[in-house]
Amino acid sequence: MPEGVPVADDEVAAIERATLQAVSPERVEALPGWLLPFDHGTVGRAKSAAPLSHAAPDLAAIDEILNRYRAAGLPPVLRLPVLPSFEAFTAELQRRGARCDAPMLTQVGAVDGLIVLPGEAGEVADAPSDAWMAMYLGPGLDPVDGRHRARALASAAGTAFVGVEEGGAMRACGAASLTHGWLGVHGMRTELAWRGRGLAGRVLKAMGLAARRQGIARVFLQVDAANAPALALYRRAGLQTAWAYAYWRF
User: Fold this and answer.
1) 118 and 226: one domain?
2) Which residue range is the domain that position 126 belongs to?
């Protein structure tokens, strides 16, 4: 993966804490330098250990992380940056039998880049509507995963819920986490028949305006590295990849 834009360790920690707040796991434990969320749902970020720094981690943490997840009755999963500083750590995970998923990207940028996207901003609400929740159960989506994701986002503190309506119905939506000094973009969805019409940009624009009202100037999101349409939109909004990450599963 190409080298990302520099992000200080305190910003990494803020992003990881904001991410967990947005996906609202059942509980979160901590080790020095790590967050350990536990959840029985389908959202990977809500049930995978994540480091709070991109400095080389201590290999001794592996046993404690694995033991805590196994004691909770959950398969151990670690969400780790794809960086040289983690090569020894991931090599040890691989030696123990862990397998690595395809990479995802953490992207960062300025809220101002969202605000200048074309189109009328979507509507922002403090609570999710039935129509917003239903967006995660549409054609092409796994209904079990959709229910888990909608419920996780809906129960998070510090989140605003954005929707775009066309033709008398909601066609695009997303969740804006406004915590830890960052706007976190989560749960972006556009109805299949309405994709390619700029609706996702209108969702981002509304999120940017909501963040500006709270004095938040920075935005982050996580996106599949293979999702070309989303990456093109985020590039137009001025976002850049800070780091790639992958899930390591046992």
Assistant:
1) yes
2) 109-244
Q: How far apart are CA 232 and CA 250, in angstroms?
A: 33
Handedness of CA 53, 54, 57, 63 (dihedral sign): positive
* 3 domain-assigned: no
What is the amino acid identity at position 232? A
135, 170 contact by CB (below 8 A)? yes
| Domain termination site, one of 56, 83, 103 | 103
Boundary-marking domain end, from 78, 103, 128: 103
79 and 197 housed in the same domain: no
Nearest to 177 by CA among 103, 124, 231, 234: 124
Residue 197 belongs to a domain: yes
3-state secondary structure of 136: helix
59 and 86 in a single domain? The answer is yes
Q: pLDDT, tens digit, for every residue of 130-161? A: 999 999 998 878 889 999 999 999 999 999 99
Can you tell me whether residue 137 is helix, strand or coil? helix
Across the strands, what pairs with 223?
105
Q: Tell me phi and psi for residue 8, to 5 degrees.
A: -70, 155
Rounded CA gap, 212 and 215, in Å? 5
Reported as a single tens digit per residue, the pLDDT across 186-224 is 999 999 999 999 999 999 999 999 999 999 999 999 999
Mutual angle of helices 228-236 and 199-213, in 10-degree steps: 50
Q: CB-based contacts of 53: which residues, under 8 Å, 6+ apart?
A: 9, 12, 13, 33
Shared domain check, 128 and 23: no
What stretch of H or E contains 197? none
pTM for the full predicted model = 0.94
